[in-house]
Amino acid sequence: MLLDRISCPADLRRLTPDQLDELSAEIREFIVEVVSTSTSGGHLGSNLGAVELTLALHRVFDSPRDILLWDIGHQAYVHKIVTGRLRGFETLRQADGMSGYPCRAESEHDWVENSHASTIISYAHGLATAQASDQGEGRRVVAVIGDGAMTGGMAYEALNNLGASGSKAIIILNDNGRSYAPTVGRMAETVSRLRVDPRYVRQRAKVEDGLRKVPYVGDHLAWGMHGALAGMREMLEPTAFFESLGVKYTGPIDGHDVVGLEKALRHAVELDEPIVVHVLTDKGKGYGPAEQDDVKRMHDIGAPKPGTYTAAFTEALIKEAENRLEVVAITAAMPDSTGLLPFAEAHPGRMVDVGIAEQHAVTSAAGMAMGGLRPVVALYSTFLSRAFDQANLDVGLHGQPVVFCLDRAGITGDDGPSHHGVLDMVLLSKVPGMTIFAPSSYQEVQQMLHDALEITSGPVAIRWSKTAAPHVDEAEVGSGLTARKVATGTDVCLVGVGKILPACIEAAELLEADGISCTVWDPRVVHPLDPALVVDAASHPVVISGEDGYRDGGVGATLADQVADIALERPAAERPAVRVCGIPTTYLDQGKPDAILSALGLDGPGLAAEARRALGR
After folding, report:
1. Strand, coil or helix: what is 143?
2. E strands along 274-394, which residues?
3. Which of 234, 282, 398, 403 sits a CA distance of 20 to 30 A from 479?
4. Where does Mg(2+) bind (predicted)?
């Protein structure tokens, strides 16, 4: 196999066009095999579409001397393979294995550990600015961004500054037609390519210079030619937007033609200014099931399964919307993963997909609420942090009843540090008037969504984990803003937030076996805490709180403060010992969620051990 002979980008430059086609097929087969058989899944569609583009980039540019940047990293598997990481690829997204994204610790070819979209042009602007400075080393800067990421406002902010600075950078717009897809024809393609051909650029400059030398009317003739060319561009090319920002544009170019891609890239290199190279690719190319997936072309492997918290949310939202015509749902380019596609089918016209634009999603939701709608914003927990300012000042400050439904909260596992949802409770608990629910079962999600929609005085958040949701009897479901007492004891009070409740119940069983009497609470509402829970906790010698969010500034810290206030007038020896168990403020690597939680002491044995230490046993 040709693939076995590729250990570094230089190996690609010795291949013929026919060999490149053969290698492309082998790479696709390899990626499909690894991702489809892995227990950790992976991102499939975008990588299958970016094979030829990646080969062309590594044949034209000299990585790591030249700086190749990838937005999100969903397109970077081929980059990893051709930069010496074929061996070990079977450990993709596994604990102590290969990252699913570019990773600086893995390779000198990786510059940005990036998995939050629309950021890469900003990195490119910064790096290009550095290369143009006295500290520059002459490195060329190339950034690849998908059309989906171009729905994010940060990408346009970066383009604006890149164009204003004039810093030399090449931006590859990998357009697979899923979001941003300008309509162009053959003539536009020909003219567009011609305009960045160095021979054409030089010849046009000579013609303009010659016209300017014509006595009396030279400047008018030159401006006339310039205007005519501009008018033709307006009619035939989708360049107006980019060039209004000071950024050249060329394309569209067939993203599966390595030879054509190389030609366009070499032309772009000769320009001493920023340029967008628009490349058309087919997401999921070469793999039938992906090509036939109309929703997301097998963007990733591992969709929501029945019995998950996400499935509970889908079921509940559809039901609530039947009786509340004012309910609408908002997603930021993830209608499938957040469980909103069935809602859109059940209630046509009541779901809004804003693209990768979380800030806009949240402020738009505030406007909808002001207009009498009840917006439900469904986001991954990790992506909410991108819109915290909007949640705080656009929603919270105005007291708008927006409901935030946060999927993948807590430790998510395979996607690594950028995807763990460990900030939401810390951040949202600091928004005045915010109510935060943390369900511990499938049925609690449904009850909490109903209760959230009953609250009209301010915003509400419901956060749940990626894992399967326990199914419980009606007697084990709370309501309103009250906590639920699961068990009653005298020695230790265990408070388990959401997914951590089963660990608290297991810890109580382990402690009871040693003769230690335990109370267990499901707080349900983590902000504000139920006063009854706080008073009861303060009556125990030891209080153990467990949460799958940051320990500092989280739910347990609030509980500890409130318990301390109640016990303040007691003798020091009689005050409860409160142990706050949560996620340390650090970046956690990829791994299975339960294994990570266990390593952090957030399982039954870990919480029981913490209780014994607090009791001095």
Report:
1. strand
2. 275-280, 300-301, 327-331, 351-353, 374-380
3. 398
4. 147, 176
Token pair of 180 as six digits: 């941003």
Phi and psi, residue 200, nearest 5°: -65, -45
**What pLDDT, on a 0 to 100 scale, did the predictor assign at position 72?**
76
The pLDDT, as a whole number, for residue 189 is: 46
Contact present, 374 and 404 (Cβ < 8 Å): no
Q: Which domains does the chain have, with CATH numbers?
A: 3-183+238-280 (3.40.50.970), 304-463 (3.40.50.970), 483-615 (3.40.50.920)
Q: Active-site positions?
A: 283, 358, 386
Question: How far is the C-alpha of 216 from the C-alpha of 195, rounded, in Å?
Answer: 29
Q: Which two tokens stand for residue 395?
A: 């929603």
Tell me: the pLDDT tens digits for 418-441? 889 999 999 999 999 999 999 999
Q: What is the pLDDT of residue 99?
A: 78
| CA-to-CA dists, residue 504 to 181, 325, 432, angstroms | 51, 39, 29
Q: Which residue, 333, 334, 292, 297, is CA-closest to 45? A: 297
Residue 289's pLDDT is 59
- Whether the predicted model's global pTM rises above the 0.90 cut: no
Count of C-beta atoms within a 10 Å radius of residue 555: 28
pLDDT recorded at residue 13 = 92
**CA 197, CA 152: separation in Å to the nearest integer?**
30
Helix 198-212 vs helix 186-196: crossing angle, to nearest 10: 70
- Write out the H or E segment, with its range, that includes residue 36: helix 17-37
Residues 583, 550 contacting (CB under 8 angstroms): yes
**In terms of Cα–Cα distance, which of 440, 370, 369, 372 is closest to 404?**
369
**Mean pLDDT in order along the chain per 10 residues (617 residues):** 88 92 90 75 77 93 94 83 84 76 84 83 93 90 89 89 92 73 37 50 59 56 54 53 88 89 93 92 68 49 70 97 96 91 95 92 96 96 95 96 97 84 96 98 97 97 93 95 97 97 97 97 98 97 97 96 92 91 93 92 97 93
Known binding residues for Mg(2+): 147, 176
Bridge partners (DSSP) listed for residue 43? 300
From the list 441, 460, 443, the residue with the least C-alpha distance to 315 is 443
pLDDT value of residue 37: 72
Q: Is 487 exposed, middle or buried (0-12, 13-18, 19+ CB in 10 A)?
A: middle
Q: What pLDDT shows up at residue 479? A: 95
Known binding residues for thiamine diphosphate are 74, 115-117, 148-149, 176, 287, 358
Residue type, 615: L
Among candidates 179, 172, 171, which has minimal Cα distance to 151? 179
Number of neighbouring beta carbons within 10 Å of residue 325: 11
Q: How far is CA 453 from CA 95, 268, 398, 437, in A?
A: 39, 53, 17, 12
